[in-house]
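Cross-posting from the chemistry board since nobody answered there.

I work mostly on the small-molecule side, so proteins are not my area. We synthesized adenosine-5'-triphosphate and want a rough idea of how it might sit in this target. Sequence and SMILES are below. Is it possible to get a predicted 3D structure of the two together?
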Amino acid sequence: MEAIKAEKIKKIYFLEGEKIEALKGVSLSIEKGEMVALMGPSGSGKSTLLHILGGIDKPTEGNVFINGQNLLSLSDKKLAIFRNKHIGFVFQFHYLLPEFTILENVMLPVQIYNRGGAKEKAEKILRLLGLSHRLKHKPSQVSGGEQQRAAIARAVVNEPDVILADEPTGNLDSKNAQKVMEIFLQMNKEKNVSIVIATHDREIAEYCNRILYLKDGVIEDIIVRT
Ligand SMILES: Nc1ncnc2c1ncn2[C@@H]1O[C@H](COP(=O)(O)OP(=O)(O)OP(=O)(O)O)[C@@H](O)[C@H]1O
Ligand SMILES: [Mg+2]
């Protein structure tokens, strides 16, 4: 069974009478343990596709399966639980909660459904991402790159089966980008986590098994790396 499967995904936005076809029928299938880069020009639909694969947004047409579960057949509540357990999402714009510290932000996904060890798990992953000295800071009190790493910590703290990351290294210098990719690689190799990374960065794509190219809402090319 595929970790991620999308069937003929279409997404149409209506904006002030104008129809925007962001996705025009995207099908893809990603195996367990695969790491895939999603590339393509700005506006080609990368974020839209990731949001739909992650159950954050619904397609106009088509179906999405994660570990065989059809996301569109779940109620909102069941979907929220499913996402918390199985999907780690890194947003292009990180959406940390401003009232909470970095540590609290990362503890939240563990606490939401009463899983144990939130503090230890959050501290461990923040340490791996080089943020041990920023645990008590609020997001507004740390740099953009630190916020982005905290958002990555929050996405992976529950050890999801699938990580969907939208330009996770967009705000990072090459050293920190490498740190993030090492964590993704480690989860990929050790836990067989399937990972999709939207990126404009060729070097990031080099870490991946496959590169999917989106252009104007369709997959234009697939490059398989050996
Ligand atoms: N909420 C929305 N309402 C209307 N149009 C939208 C909305 N969200 C995205 N779009 C449009 O859909 C298309 C795809 O946008 P998307 O954000 O998926 O692109 P992207 O590939 O992630 O770009 P970038 O590389 O700049 O992040 C764009 O033309 C965009 O303007
Ligand atoms: Mg985007």
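Reply from a structural biologist on the board:
Welcome over. Reading the output above for you: The longest strand covers residues 18-30. Residues 4-224 form a domain with the Rossmann fold fold (CATH 3.40.50.300). Happy to explain the token format if needed.
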